[in-house]
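Quarterly update from the structural biology core.
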Amino acid sequence: MAPLFANRAAAEVDLASPTMAEKLRFLSEPAAYPNAPSSVIVTETHLSFVFLAGDRAFKLKKPARHAFLDFSTLEAREANCREEVRLNRRLTQDVYLGVVALTYDSARGFALGGDAPVIDWLVEMRRLPQEKMLDQLIKDNRLSEADVEAVSEILANFYHRAEPSSIAAQDYVMRFINEQEKNRHVLTRRDFALDHGTIPALLDRLDARLNIDRPLLEDRVRSGHIVDGHGDLRPEHICLCKPIAIFDCLEFSFDLRQVDPFDELTYLGVECALLGAMELGAKITEKTARRLGGEAPRRLISLYAAWRAVLRARLSIAHLLDPTPREPEKWAPLARRYLDLAQQALHIGDEEILI
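Predicted structure, tokenized:
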């Protein structure tokens, strides 16, 4: 990318190491980008800032440090950007364009590219049409059977060629158990506006199912079904453009991407159900299973659904533990909806056990 300098932004900066606020100010200006967008839309996620600039999107990682990742150094953010591009190219074509340096010196100011010192890195992407995202199609009731077939075909092909995981059966099971301990620790905090009369019983039921179905989980490993998957398969990460793009995979954790395809498909189903498409996940799972040459493991589907829903409830409410949470009014209602879905999944699983 050719360098492009913003003199006005440069004049506002007199520090040797620009702050995040100064980076954001520069990247929020249309003059920062060589494609000369008429405006820039900035969105914030838990780990990144995304700049929608015309037909391009640029993602800047926050210099965050959590138990599950460390983006506190420039080198770590560069490595993560490059890994994001590599991994997401598995399920997209011409969407992830590459990694771009953000450079700065006191004489010339900021630039995307250029020969000044690199102060950060961004992932550059082709901007995808919002109206063709799966979550938007669900909300607008515009999803066709042909769309479902197309998504299922792409996912089946992806899982067919995905790299097999070397995870041990015991480690696979312990991941569920360890995450369930975290679920209990967070969801039973009395300072959250949740139903603390029902949550312990729900968590106990999920513990029991993990214990009962432990042999089934271990068998999924021993029979070679665990692969290096997407890791964050949600409707907002699937675009029904041509060709279909499935993007924004979980690039920062190799371990969390080691998944049973049916766990990942069930996760997608939970998120579709949250949007009101209660049967869509089952349709995609069944059609994908057929292409993979087998039936979906019904007992495990209900377990995976309950576990994913409880995990999502925890991750939702945990936003309120941040010093300055984004949209604080959003997280408790969202967590309650996930917990309702977990209850439904466990009820279905209990009926299957009785049968």
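The two ends are 61 Å apart (CA to CA).
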